[in-house]
Amino acid sequence: MSDVTTFAAPASEPTVDSRLARSRRTTELTLVFMAAVITGTAYTVTALGTNAEIPPGIIVFVAILLGLLLCAHVMVRLVARGADGTMLPLAALLHGIGFVMIARLDDELAGLQATWSLIAIGSFVLTLLVVQRATDLARYSWLFFFGGAFLLLLPLAPGLGVNINGARIWVSLGPINFQPGEFAKIALAIFFASYLADRRELIAASTWRVGPIHLPEPRYIAPIVMAWGFAVVVMVFQRDLGSSLLFFTLFVVMMWVATERLSYLLIGTVLFGAAAYFSWTQFGHVQTRVDIWLDPWEDPLDRGYQIIQALYGLADGGLTGTGLGRGNPGQVPEAQNDFIFAAIAEEWGLIGASAVLMAFVLLVGAGLRTALRTDRTFEKLLAVGLTTIVGIQGFIIIAGVIKVVPLTGITLPFVSYGGSSLVANYVLLALLIRLSDSSARRLGELPDEPTPSERWKAWRLSKRVRRAERHGLPVEGLA
Amino acid sequence: MACPSRGWPDVNRQIRQLAVGIMACYVVLFVALNYWQVGRKQELDARFDNTRQVLREFNKPRGPIITADGQVAAVSFPTAPGEPYNYRREYPTGDLLADITGYYTFAFGSTQVERSYGDVLTGSTAEQQVRALGDLLGGDVGTTGTVELAVRKDAQEVAKFLLGGRTGSITVIEPATGAIRAMYSNPTYDPNTFVDADFEVAQQIITDLQNADGNPLLAQAYQERYMPGSTFKVVTTGIALESGILGLDNSFPNEREWVPPQTNDPIQNYNGSLCGGDLATVFARSCNIPFAQLATLLGPDAMVAGTAAWGIGEEIPIDLPRPAASTFGNTANLAQELPLLAIRGFGQSEVQMVPLHLAMVAGTVANGGQMMQPYAVQATYDQAGRVLDRTEPEVWKTPLSPTNAGIMTQLMIGVAERGTASCCIALEGGIPVAAKTGTAQLGDPSNLDLSHAWIIAFAPADNPQYAVSVVLTDVQSTPDVAVTGGRLAGPLAKGMLDYLLTGAGSQPIAPTQPTEPPITESTDVDGDT
């Protein structure tokens, strides 16, 4: 027997899906359907609230919505049928709530967002198809490193980058504007995961001592520090505080989980404190953010206007909200973007806003459950990294909007208006679903079938083996 | 094959801690949400710069206000996308109905019907909400309401024309129902100039209007009160008739002056003339002394109670916001101030009447002694044109018995036929009319000739359809032409009643000042103090 046969069906592997794996898909279908119903109902009620008329295209809207979500669901069923069944519906729910809010705030943006939704679901499907084995990503870790760096630098390129609202995080390519940073964070998470998975023992060994503190060999940690420092510096130049904070958190969390050393978390926090203090003393726009956070009523008509209006919106919403389409979320500048959570809290009330928080918590839960279930370090770390991006990004912007931390402009994943953000988050979701599926297969919940590309390679290899056996030659590539 | 975890199972501990950490972050968010949306809700809602509540109201679609004759007085149009507000309010009649409709602005609130009937116009009443829910199932949605005024646009136009820019007001009511058919006053304003203007522009216009003479933003006819002069003798006479101390057979001595108790200063008739005779005569000629004597005879308590029976001292129960209340003046020490009581008996001193209230006084006589609640809105409709509410006439006060109302009618017909109004009120086609004039001398030490010229009237006297009050405020007597209610205000009441009863009078009829005083038998006492 050659090793080739073990590729196809090891004897110990199950040959049929376990009931658990099958029930996940049923759950997903049901929940996706419910997300579509909630979105369609909210869309109708909001239109009734604003214009007192049932939107004329409601049937088409619901049909397209269901079509898109079913398309995503069918793709999961085809190529990742062991994956967690809650992640796609949760993302769809957040996406739907966000779309209803955007459509209520601005018709024109709603049209664009609909187009972006199409592209985002397309990217989701494409990612699932292209990334058939999560471990494949680890092979290209340096590509992701340089790719991420390139994407981060792109907005600073003269002629390409554009300043919007004081932040230079946009790239303008003809009619399309996009934020490469949204994709850079995924690329860097993949790089961190791969790099840390390979060298975590070395880094955790911390042979290098500075006084009482144990630090890892500088040469092992250098690429990570570089990657992180690079990202942070670039984003300071781009004045994108939210993304800087997100990258920093991502880096610290992944270091901590990989090395299992609490000291990294503490060092990270101290470093962050120092960096935050430094930028507060050095940069006017950071000081402004902090001043507004401390007392927005100091300058209620200018700098504090946005946050004050958001808070008035929250208060006006109260427990049950003003009613869909019956509030005035348009009072808050950028309500469709960074401040979309305030708009939701105003019209959907504490109840609706809590539902959004809950959706994020559940999504984070599903992501970290994937990290717990998988047994490969790279996949563990990648799942942790991707989940942290969604969870922390959501926290940073919501906390900023409701005055828990100083406001840093960043999008609310799946909910805010914005093509780059939506596409990037669906790619991220596809990766999480891929990780979840592989963990289920390795846990024996369903057969670990070869991917189409593996089948293709195996077929070619077996042909070569047969040819070699026929001619009695040594077989290349079988080691 | 599943790989072993290579001796690193504890990574899972970090992941679990991470899960707890992120969960904690979101718990903080949930707590903060509760803090803002529940804990500090009331405080934030109440902040002066929080415009959410009013903005929500402002951006609702708003139905039209139409007049009794079907003309549009206020209407909303949707604005183009990108405008700060969803709707633009327009008042097609300009300043003509501003006193009735009021205005509706985002930054400066709303007044009159726009204020009182805001719920109906935006469809926020419970009944409209329930009906809208029913309609929704039938596919026909929308909740805005329509308000139909009792006021007629044509009558309003005639009133505006008759006033011809002079300050004052004309009010017409239906005696039997209280429906206000016209209520126009000068100075007024055109709400179109500021309802849709930019904040600063609108603020400037409103400030200018507030500081302007005569307060144009006020609907003077029901929100302002003036000294009524001799028109108040209707009230005094009514009280005396009801108390039983007076009848048509009473007569009063022909006197030039009379000294009331507690003083040595005599009270005089208008121009110090000699005046007396039976009740019909002294009422028609509007002698002052008989009514001073009646007030004194009735005494403070009966006068105070009597004026209260006419609604004096109470806000007028009109269906518009912030009505004024007529007043008999300070009554605390009236028993020690009998001379003041005597003077108030003929409508001078501290007595002040709202023009609408005086129309209602005339209406009471016309309506057999019952004073109806006045109303500016006669019906409201939902989006589909179904009636939401139709104003039912209601009696407010009953200060006169039908018999005494009949006596009062006879007295007022006398005024029109042979008294102080005979110069100017005879109607087209000989329709019988009843009236009472008044010239309120303001007693301004620097300008003794400044007066309010009044007339109240109703017609046809035998089957009253309309009661009218006209006041021209702060008019100046000249040495040649003395200001009197009959001469100045009389033609306006005639013009108004002619138009309403026969359609005549839409032609120019009222010279602002008669070139010659009309010669009547009562020229010597024409007008009153």
Description:
- The complex is a heterodimer of chains A (479) and B (529).
- By secondary structure, chain A is mostly helical.
- Chain A has helices at 4-8, 19-51, 58-79, 87-105, 107-130, 134-139, 141-153, 180-205, 218-237, 241-259, 262-282, 284-294, 305-317, 340-373, 377-401, 419-442, 452-471, and strands at 161-164, 167-173, 176-178, 208-210, 213-215.
- Helices cover 70% and strands 4% of the residues of chain A.
- Mean pLDDT of chain A is 83; it is low at 1-11.
- Chain A is globular and about 85 Å long.
- Chain B has 529 residues and is an alpha+beta fold.
- Chain B has a domain at 223-377 and 392-525: Beta-lactamase (3-Layer(aba) Sandwich).
- Chain B has a six-stranded mixed beta sheet with strand order 3-2-1-4-12-13, with no helix packed on it. Chain B has a five-stranded antiparallel beta sheet with strand order 6-5-17-16-15, sandwiched between helices. In chain B, strands 7-10 form a two-stranded antiparallel sheet.
- Chain B is elongated.
- Classes of the chains: A mainly alpha (479), B alpha+beta (529).
- At the A-B interface, α10, α13, α14 and α15 of A face α1, α2 and α3 of B.
What's the CATH class label of one domain in chain B?
Answer: Alpha Beta
Structural class of chain B: alpha+beta
- The percent of residues in helical segments of chain A reads 55-70%
Full CATH superfamily name of one domain in chain B: DD-peptidase/beta-lactamase superfamily
Apparent shape of chain B: elongated
Largest sheet of chain B: 6 strands, mixed
Q: Tell me which oligomeric state these chains represent.
A: heterodimer
- Measure the end-to-end span of chain B: 116 Å
Contiguous helical run count of chain A: 17
Order of helices and strands of chain A: HHHHHHHEEEHEEHHHHHHHHH
Shape of chain A: globular
Number of helices of chain B: 18
Question: What is the CATH fold-level name of one domain in chain B?
Answer: Beta-lactamase
